[in-house]
């Protein structure tokens, strides 16, 4: 996936708010990853579903491990984020456990160089949760009654407004918007490497 480079989504400057800028500058990457991953299309059996959850668990555990690093505690508080409430790796572990599957090893994720990069990663992770209930229904329709807590987000609450608010606060305080976009694009690349390439090799 050479096309998914960190530079691909960055258009420095601009007058739009940071949430709008992120949406505009990562839209092509988002659509490309979504189309290539094709989550509903790749889940045709229970084993397919376990494989998908296992890959997601490795990615989320690695990325969320960086997001909750103690070095970012004050920064998250400063933009109004309780980062523990945004972590979903535990939901993946619960689904896998109910399926009788072993939780995958954490993916190796490089430390974020700045808080802006971490915030960009959170934007991607929470954005991916928005369509989860639709995916959950598709999975159940395809393979029957399986645990879909990760996708449905049951008991988790709606976290997207908090992310948009954090992005606005960060920008209002002079935060580096370019770093946020870079972090978002890099996170899309991580998902491309962790989800798309294995699927293409089958």
Tags for this model:
202 residues, mainly alpha, Heme Oxygenase, Chain A, 10 helices, globular, disordered C terminus
Question: What does this molecule look like?
Answer:
The structure is a single chain. The chain is mainly alpha-helical and 202 residues long. It has one domain (16-200): Heme Oxygenase, Chain A. The chain is built from ten helices and no strands. It is globular. The two termini are 16 Å apart. Mean pLDDT is 87; it is low at 1-15 and 197-202.
Q: In this structure, how is the largest beta sheet organized?
A: none
Alpha carbon gyration radius: 17 Å
End-to-end distance: 16 Å
Question: What portion of the residues fall into strands of 2 or more residues?
Answer: under 5%
Number of strands: 0
Structural category is mainly alpha
The mean pLDDT is 87
Give the helices and strands as they follow along the chain.
HHHHHHHHHH
| Number of helices, counting only DSSP H or I runs of 4 residues or more | 10
User: Domains counted in the coordinates: how many?
Assistant: 1
What best-fitting shape do the alpha-carbon axes yield?
globular
CATH topology: the name is Heme Oxygenase, Chain A
Low-confidence stretches: 1-15, 197-202
Q: Helical amount among residues, as a percent range?
A: 55-70%
* The CATH top-level class label: Mainly Alpha
CATH superfamily: Heme oxygenase-like
CATH architecture: Up-down Bundle
């Amino acid at each position: 996936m050479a096309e998914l480079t960190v530079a691909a989504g960055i258009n420095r400057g601009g007058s739009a708010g940071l949430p709008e800028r992120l949406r505009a500058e990562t839209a092509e990457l988002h659509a490309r990853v979504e189309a290539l991953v094709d989550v509903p299309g790749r889940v045709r059996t229970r084993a397919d579903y376990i494989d998908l959850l296992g890959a997601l668990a490795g990615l989320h555990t690695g990325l969320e491990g960086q997001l909750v690093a103690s070095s970012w505690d004050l920064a998250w508080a400063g933009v109004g984020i309780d980062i523990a409430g945004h972590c979903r790796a535990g939901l993946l572990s619960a689904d896998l456990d109910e399926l009788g599957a072993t939780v995958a090893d954490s993916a190796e994720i490089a430390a974020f160089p700045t808080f802006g990069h971490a915030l960009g990663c959170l934007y991607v992770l929470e954005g991916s949760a928005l369509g989860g209930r639709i995916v959950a229904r598709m999975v159940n329709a395809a393979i029957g009654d399986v645990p879909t807590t990760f996708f449905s987000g049951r008991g988790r609450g709606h976290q997207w407004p908090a992310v948009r608010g954090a992005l606005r606060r960060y920008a209002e305080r002079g935060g580096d918007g370019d770093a946020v976009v870079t972090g978002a694009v890099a996170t899309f690349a991580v998902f491309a490497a962790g989800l798309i390439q294995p699927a293409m090799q089958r």
